[in-house]
Amino acid sequence: MTGEPSTLLYIHGLNSSPRSKKASQLSTLMQTLGLDEHLRVPELHHHPRQAIAQLDALITELGRPLLVGSSLGGYYATHLAERHGLKALLINPAVMPHPLFDGYIGTQQNLYSGESWELTHDHVQALAELEVPAPQDPLRFQVWLQTGDETLDYRSAQSYYRACALRIQPGGDHSFQGFTEQLPALLGFAGFAPALLQAIDRSVL
After folding, report:
1. N or C, which end of the chain is more exposed by having fewer CB within 10 Å?
2. Span 185-200, average pLDDT
3. What is the DSSP string of 46-86?
4. 189 within 8 A of 89, measured Cβ to Cβ
5. Confidence at residue 103, expressed as pLDDT on a 0 to 100 scale
6. 119: left (phi over 0), alpha (psi -120 to 50) or beta
7. What ranges do the domains of the chain cover?
8. Class of 8-197 per CATH?
9. Alpha carbons 15 and 27: distance in angstroms, whole number
10. Distance from CA of residue 95 to its chain's centroid?
């Protein structure tokens, strides 16, 4: 390891969970490396205020984790990274999602738990309250985008995070195809030595 590596705090997106594909692949990798204690993947509440409270508590517990946010989790991670001065790696992040959410008021269902819940105008207001100015620090923010994202227009994130370290891949989709191939870069950003991954068979992830 290169110094003391950061714990990874993975932040899933809307109607997702720790059982999502990327979260599962990351969990499997860390287990394979014997580094379970360096990863936390919380099950977030659907309401932004409660989700942020969960994440604030974890940041207090973990110290200075690397925030890894996917989709809406990227929006949360941006807010938290700016408020706490943390590093963040964002994967197809949502940018100012509250206007989009306003068109989906009503019953929602978590894709993994099957839980039904009501998206309300209070959810939308809570999301708006988390908005921060565009980050300006390429050393603290890495943003991974795929142009084939069918849910979010990658160009919105490309513009908003233009001062940050951008990695834009052609094709792909919102789930971010080829995520396991990027895991060495993720762990490198967290401060782990790249040699840790040399013997890992990524086909099992």
Report:
1. N
2. 81
3. SSHHHHHHHHHHHHHHHSSPEEEEETHHHHHHHHHHHHHT-
4. yes
5. 78
6. beta
7. 8-197
8. alpha beta
9. 19
10. 12
